[in-house]
Amino acid sequence: MSENGQAKSKALAEIGEQPVLWHLIKYYQHYGFTEFVIALGYMAGAIQSYFENAGYTRLPTNGTGQTQRWRSGALDVTLVDTGLETENGGRIKRLAPYLSDGTFMLTWCDGLSDVDLPRLIEFHRSHGRLATLTAVHPPGRFGRLSMVGDRVSEFSEKTVSDDEWINGAFFVLEPGVFNYIEGDHTQFERDTLAHLAQEGQLMAYRHRSFWQCMDTVKEQRALDAMWRERAAPWKVWE
């Protein structure tokens, strides 16, 4: 993502006066999550500097310099440099040594939601499969046209069907998912999720409330406006 010609890691794009990474950590922390493992690639140094400048304390590690640990109060954050060329599935697999052997959660730093995490986990545990994604309605970005020849017979402004769902991230996963990631070249959506779906191991939690991706500066500004107007649905903490 870039603004005013300056490249910036999407994780550090600001909503209010804090990066979206901060918002996600605060959201998960509200529901009792205090241990975070973050895969770094593009602009890894900028994210590392963020934790240093945000008042986190750096902890010693036994790694090779590709790993950093930071702590602030109850929060424990591990940063793992997974390289510039690694696909997102490969990045996830590289995090395996830093995760416990149980269920874990995963999301991208490119969107915010008010998904109820306890209910999401409850749903995941109820079906016994390896993976759950949060399914959301796509944003209605484009007006829909009905045509008779070249004549527009009907125009519907930015409507979204109740039957349309997309992957909204906010995953709940079991360690068995790592067996579906071959290596650094694996793309999580195209390869891993597709394979899990083929084997009946992927389930969708239908989230009908707020979700907004942040793929563009315009979407970032929309989220920023919600925050500044004290109308941010993801702001569940005090």
Concise overview:
The protein is of the alpha+beta class.
List the helices and strands and how they pair.
Elements: E1 2-3, E2 6-7, E3 14-15, E4 18-19, H1 20-30, E5 35-40, H2 44-53, E6 57-59, E7 67-72, E8 75-81, H3 88-94, E9 104-106, E10 111-113, H4 117-127, E11 131-136, E12 144-148, E13 151-156, E14 166-167, E15 171-173, H5 188-198, E16 202-206, E17 211-213, H6 217-228
Parallel strand pairs: 5-8, 11-16
Antiparallel strand pairs: 1-2, 3-4, 6-7, 7-8, 9-15, 10-17, 11-14, 11-15, 12-13
Helix pairs in contact: 3-5
**Low confidence ranges:** none
Structural class: alpha+beta
Report the top-level CATH class.
Alpha Beta
CATH architecture: Alpha-Beta Complex
Q: What number of structural domains do the residues give?
A: 1
Taking all Cα atoms into account, the compactness measure Rg is 19 Å
Tell me how many strands there are: 17
Q: What distance lies between the first and last C-alpha atoms, to the nearest angstrom? A: 29 Å
How much of the sequence lies in strands comes to: 25-35%
What is the share of helical residues? 25-40%
Mean pLDDT: 91
The biggest beta sheet, please? 5 strands, mixed
Describe this structure in words.
This protein is an alpha+beta fold and 238 residues long. It has a single domain (10-227), classed as Spore Coat Polysaccharide Biosynthesis Protein SpsA, Chain A (Alpha-Beta Complex), CATH 3.90.550. It is built from six helices and 17 strands. It has helices spanning 20-30, 44-53, 88-94, 117-127, 188-198, 217-228, and strands at residues 2-3, 6-7, 14-15, 18-19, 35-40, 57-59, 67-72, 75-81, 104-106, 111-113, 131-136, 144-148, 151-156, 166-167, 171-173, 202-206, 211-213. Strands 9, 11, 14, 15 and 16 form a five-stranded mixed sheet that branches. A four-stranded mixed sheet has the order 5-8-7-6, with helices on both faces. Strands 1-2 form a two-stranded antiparallel sheet. Strand 1 and strand 2 form a beta hairpin. Helix 3 crosses helix 5. The protein is globular and about 65 Å long.
